[in-house]
Amino acid sequence: MTDLSIFENLESQVRSYSRSWPVVFDRAVGSVMYDEHGNEYLDFFAGAGALNYGHNNPVLKDVLLRYLADDRVIHSLDMFTTARREFLQSFSEVILEPRNLDYRVVFPGPGGANAVEAALKLARKVTGRESVVNFTNAFHGMTLGALSVTGNSLKRGGAGVPLVHATPMPYDDYFNRDYPDFLYLERLLGDSGSGLNTPAAVIVETVQGEGGINAARAEWLRGLADLCKRHDILLIVDDIQMGCGRTGGFFSFEEAGIVPDIVTLSKSIGASGLPMALTLVRPDLDIWEPGEHNGTFRGIAPAFATASAAINEYWRDDTLERSTLEKGARVESRWNSLVAKHTDADGEGQLVAKGRGLARGLQLPTGAQADAVARGAFERGLLIETSGPEGEVLKLMPALTITDAQLDRGLDIIDAAVAEVLGA
C-alpha cells in the first residue's frame, strides 16, 4: 500500500497532478515511468511538454553526467561560460541560421513565465505603450503579467488582484468561422472611438495547449502577423509548450511562414527536464539597459549542456521532424476512427479530434467525462491529462521519441477508457 501521508500533511493544497495520479513515482526511462512498487505507467504527459526527448534520454544523460563529473560550472548567473557559448553556437548554427531567423537571445530566468514576463516588459519598453492583446482560452503562465494575458478564469482568480493592461480577442474558430478573421480587432484598431489604446503587442500560441489543443490555421496566423505589421504592433509567439519540435518543425510557427518579433521558449529547450527559458527578440528591439531584466537562475549551465546535445543530436537533419509528423498522423487517423465510432445515425458526434503534430486533443461532451476517461486510462497504466476551459479535452503529449508500439498501446488504452465512459 502506498503511504501518501507525508505529502498530504506537509504539502500545500495547491498541488494538482498528484491528485490525478496518486502513486509515488521512483524511476523513469524513455516513455515509461515506474512507481516505487515497480508498477509501469506509459507516459502521454511528458512533463507537460518539458520532456520531448523522453525521460533520462541516454544521449542527454551521458552528457549531463560527464558535465557534473568534470566539475564544470553549474551556477553562473549571466557570466560567460563554455557551456553558454556552446549552447549559443549550436542554437545559432543549427536552429536560427537555417531558418533565416535573426534573434538576440535573452536568458530571463528558469521557467516559461519568466520568458513571457520578459517579452511583455520589453514590448512595453520598446513601444511606450501598456496594452497587450491576448486571445480567448490562452495560457501564458502563473505570474501576474503572464496571468493578465491568460484566459482561464480559475487561474486568473488565483491572482488576488485585478489583472490589467490586457484585452482578450477571439482566437481562431472561436465563432465557428461565422465572421471574417479579426473583424472585431480590426474595427477596434481603426475606430478612434473604440476605447482600445494601440497595443504594444499581441501574444499568441499557435496551438493552445492548456486551452484545449486549439490549433490556429496557418492562414489565420499569417493574417494576424499582417495585422500586427500594418498597425505597428509587436507580435509575440509563445512557443513554450509547442516549440522544440512538438508540432513537427522546431518552432510551431514555421508552418505558417511567419517571423514573430519576439518568441518565448522553455520546457523542452533544456532537453532533459532541467529548467531553462529563452526570450528571442529582434536585434533592433534589444534595448535593455545592463541588468534591467535579471534573475539569479538565468544561467543554469547543465541545462545549456543538455540543450546543446539535443540540438546537435536531433536537429541537424529532419529525421525527428518527419517522425513527429508521421506519429501525429497516426494519432489523427486512430482518433478520427474513434470519433466515427461514437457518432450516431443523425451524424451527431460525441467526440472531436484536434491538434497538430504530437500535440493532440480528444474533446468529450463534458469535463466530467474527460476526467473519467483519464482516470480509466490511469487505472490501465497510462498517464494523460485533460485541458480546455471545462477540462473537457484529453490532451495527448507524449515524448517525440516514443516508439510506434508504445504509441499504439497508449491509443488502445484510450479506446478502452472511452468505450467504458461513453459506451462501446
TrEMBL record:
Its EC number(s): 2.6.1.76
One GO term (biological process): ectoine biosynthetic process
Pfam families reported in the protein's UniProt record: Aminotran_3 (PF00202)
Cofactors demanded by this protein: pyridoxal 5'-phosphate
Keywords: Aminotransferase, Pyridoxal phosphate, Transferase
PROSITE patterns: AA_TRANSFER_CLASS_3
InterPro entries documented for this protein: Aminotrans_3, Aminotrans_3_PPA_site, Dat, Ectoine_EctB, PyrdxlP-dep_Trfase, PyrdxlP-dep_Trfase_major, PyrdxlP-dep_Trfase_small
UniProt cross-references to NCBIfam families, sorted A to Z: dat, ectoine_ectB, PRK09264.1
Family: Belongs to the class-III pyridoxal-phosphate-dependent aminotransferase family.
PANTHER family, alphabetized: DIAMINOBUTYRATE--2-OXOGLUTARATE AMINOTRANSFERASE, DIAMINOBUTYRATE--2-OXOGLUTARATE TRANSAMINASE
The name this protein goes by in its record: Diaminobutyrate--2-oxoglutarate transaminase
Organism name: Pseudoclavibacter endophyticus
Taxonomic lineage: Bacteria, Bacillati, Actinomycetota, Actinomycetes, Micrococcales
Gene: ectB
